[in-house]
Please model this.
Amino acid sequence: MSLNTIVAISLGAILTNNFIFSQFLGCCPFLGCSDRTDTAAGMGLAVIFVMGLASAICWVIDQYILIPLKLAFLETLAFILVIAALVQFVEMFLKKTVPSLYKALGIYLPLITTNCAVLGVVLLNVQNDYNFIESVVYGITGGIGFMLAIVLFASVRERVQFSDYPECFEGFPICLVSAGLLALAFMGFSGMSIM
Amino acid sequence: MKKDSTGALIFKLGIILLLVCAVVAGVLGVVNEITADRIYQQKREKTFAAYSAVLPAAEYEEVGFDKSQFGTVDIIEKADGGEGYVVQTTFSGAQGMITMVVGVKESGSKYTCSGISIISHSETSGLGAVAASSSEKGESFRSSFIGKDKNIKIADIDAISGATITSKAVTEAVATAIKAVESIA
Amino acid sequence: MRIKDQFREGLITNNPVLVQQIGMCATMAITTSLFNGIGMGLSVLVILTCCNVVIAAIRKIIPGEIRLAIFVVVIAGFVTIVDLLLQAFVPALSESLGVFIPLIVVNCIIIGRAEAFCQKNTVKASFIDGIAQGLGYTGVLVSMCFFRELLGAGRFGGGLIDISNGFRFTLDGSGGGIRIFAEDYGAKILTMPFGGFLTLGFLIALMQYALKKSAKKKQLEAEAEADKEKEAAEE
Model:
């Protein structure tokens, strides 16, 4: 395990294999919670936090409980329960400490449970055979990639509101098309060699 | 829900949730029991097919190697009859990790590549993905590795145009695989 | 009559992806070949129908406070069953869909239907709702695949249909599909992530256009009707 691997994982998760723009993980909150930059940033922070924590806890559960007991087939079930509990915890924590952020995120916080980026990252950790540190790094940098994408996209959307487009593109379609253009921009990173 | 105290309510809900989880886990256990053998069989067959595509043999046996020296190499298996080895390696391509099986043939003390087969990748379709495709270009790319030794360079192979990074990564991985086999032989 | 309405809702007027706009991650990610699209669509259909039936059956005995947790556990159970069965019997599909099969757990379509429909309806209605919504989802996936595959790679039915040796269906994902034009002339960009966003954006726009048009037409008809009645009354 070297610094090289860590850098490769981080760059991959943030840029070349961005969770949203190349793996399509977490599109629902990405499209639903991106009409203002500050809300998007809050959502991004919450996701980074939950993804990092979920990666760590799920790795421990997988390695020390599920695999020794030969219960690897229960992974999906166990992970989603851990994530649901974690989100509850983050929600209570935010309610007590940063009520303004809690208010801004509103209904989207419980939606992190059904954010496929979070379940996706823990499943990918298992699939890629990452060790503890790699898993946590992948979780956190994946979250950073998500935040980068959602903040960029929110600032694009703030401008889209004032532009002229065909009536039937109102709402989601125009968002999807602009998100597609951002994805196209992120493809520019794909030539980057991460040896 | 009558006037239960909070503690009793939480306890009751907890028990119900636990029961539901137990039932679901039980059902999954049964399904797993039925499918586990087949899944194992499928995986084994797939690796076997990949191995025999690069170096045919009746049986393969895992051998140890120095993982700290060859970080990208996952497994080395010796082909039955001693005509060579198959090396499974995972390395970084242009887009993500590529998993590949390399056959290494032993003749005298010379080690050469007997074929490669890409098991999984996430390269750009139409460009880097050609390396793994069954198209004519892909075939000629892969077969150009046959007979090459550890000093292989990208100039020696039929590289894929527009996918230099992928071609280079595959070439380096083949060279590493041959070196890894040499180190244990 | 009710059944017909439910199917109409699932397929068109309340289509999960195009109108409710949920469950989009997988829709954009895996729709690069017909094989993936149909495989994913059918998996969701089966899981959705099973979950709907079970949840509708136990809807009266689960306490409201923890219903979401129980929904999630039931859904995760069915998803794992389908995942294991696919790994055992259709390994090619399980491989090409990868992490998106277990991710059906967090697909909003299933938990959304559980919360919005099954909680209040009978087992039979929920069963039909599962099939209707599942078919609606499959329909969208298939049309996405159709456009992306045809325009991006110049073929139809990749992985599922093989015509090199007479027409036959391949369940191991090996079929080359029907070539419409040479791959080199395809707009490769459509098979990449960008194409997923773009195609779905255009499909939803098309749907909104059609729905708006039919709403306008109905309104015009209603107005015409009203006018006629008025005229009749005046006479």
Remarks:
- Chain A has a mean pLDDT of 84.
- The interface with chain C takes residues 21-28, 31, 73-77, 80-81, 84, 113-116, 119-120, 123-124, 127, 166-177, 179-181, 183-184, 187 of chain A (CB under 8 Å).
- Chain A is about 70% helix and 0% strand.
